[in-house]
Amino acid sequence: DPLAFAIGECHKRGMELHAWIVTIPAGNTRQVQLQGRSSVVRKNRTICKLYKGNWYLDPGNPGTKEYLSCIVKEITSRYDIDGIHFDYIRYPE
Fold first, then answer.
1. Contact (CB, 8 A) for 86 and 21
2. Which residues form the Glycosyl hydrolase-like domain (predicted)?
3. Are 91 and 28 in contact (CB under 8 A)?
């Protein structure tokens, strides 16, 4: 488990490790196809929007909040993480 290993190594050295989550972008059409069934677009299409050839989670959809909350809950319940950063938590430009 790479994350558990990284956390352990950081903590041994007195460092913190923060998870960095890219929240809204889900990838372009090709990337989504390459991800196959593991893609959020395939698993939870109702919270996704296609915009200018790229897929995004819809920040205005309450399901997006629920989806991201589940990810954070999984990380915080499984790992001794020191923090979480949310990146790209905005509408696409």
1. yes
2. 1-89
3. no
